[in-house]
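Q: Given only this backbone (279 positions), what sequence would you predict?
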């Protein structure tokens, strides 16, 4: 397999793991900041352990440089928006809004590093954005609007992370991820009450952190091998899985606006990838 094919495989695996995020966030009574604290603790421990086992402490932490610190800070901001988004809106809305990433990442990469966008990616991005706007329109005047806006903030942060890795491909993946966890833990302690959570919920959140530490590393490793626009499109593959899991596990049904907007998004993603493959 060539580097691009390996990158695509890593991004697909990351998207599959990310599709279960809403189940962890909504499956516990803990507040968003409690989840952020425990998730950061266990994800940080796993990631740091991964670095130590590979004897890459210098490469992952000492050699992070400014790009690595930028990834850590931006990723922490994205997580601070991502977890609360699930508490304020549906899993389907958060997952499908993430599909705006192709447009955001593609435009960022075009402005910053001059990376061209293929016609397929441009068309898919515009269509995906229209679908997201339909979803947000369906939340106007409701409690879900707050969650939708937080999801959009998360999209901007994650898209920026993708472009940073494209601009600085030698930026380590595990080190910045561990540092983002370290940055979030004090905030989770201050704004939440993590010690008040029952042991069973802490175990669930621990699984959340461990699993998504892996997903974050896969995303970073895949993003350095694949163009930013295509990376974002592949990441939206979680969109069809997340609402189905929410329905099967939590009996959460999406609204008509979400179904309509989500359908447009999924068609845009599939069509864009098919056109690119054919080309």
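A: Predicted residues:
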């Amino acid at each position: 397999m060539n580097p691009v094919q390996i990158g695509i495989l890593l991004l697909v695996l990351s998207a599959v793991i990310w599709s279960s995020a809403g189940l962890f966030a909504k499956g516990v009574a803990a507040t968003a900041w409690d989840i952020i604290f425990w998730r950061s603790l266990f994800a940080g421990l796993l990631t740091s352990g991964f670095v130590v086992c590979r004897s890459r402490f210098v490469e992952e932490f000492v050699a992070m440089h400014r790009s690595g610190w930028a990834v850590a800070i931006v990723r922490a901001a994205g997580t601070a928006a991502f977890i609360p988004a699930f508490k304020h809106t549906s899993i389907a809305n958060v997952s499908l809004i993430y599909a705006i990433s192709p447009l955001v990442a593609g435009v960022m990469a075009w402005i910053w590093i001059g990376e061209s966008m293929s016609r397929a990616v441009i068309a898919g991005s515009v269509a995906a954005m229209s679908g997201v706007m339909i979803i947000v329109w369906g939340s106007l005047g409701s409690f879900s609007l707050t969650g939708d806006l937080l999801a959009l903030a998360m999209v901007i942060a994650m898209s920026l992370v993708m472009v940073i890795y494209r601009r600085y491909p030698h930026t380590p993946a595990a080190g910045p991820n561990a540092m983002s966890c370290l940055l979030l833990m004090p905030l989770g302690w201050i704004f939440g009450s993590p010690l008040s959570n029952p042991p069973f919920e802490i175990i669930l959140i621990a699984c959340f952190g461990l699993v998504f530490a892996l997903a974050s590393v896969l995303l970073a490793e895949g993003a350095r091998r694949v163009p930013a626009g295509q990376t974002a499109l592949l990441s939206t593959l979680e969109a069809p899985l997340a609402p189905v899991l929410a329905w099967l596990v939590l009996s959460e049904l999406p609204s008509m606006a979400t179904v309509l907007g989500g359908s447009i998004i999924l068609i845009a993603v599939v069509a864009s990838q098919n056109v690119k493959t054919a080309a």
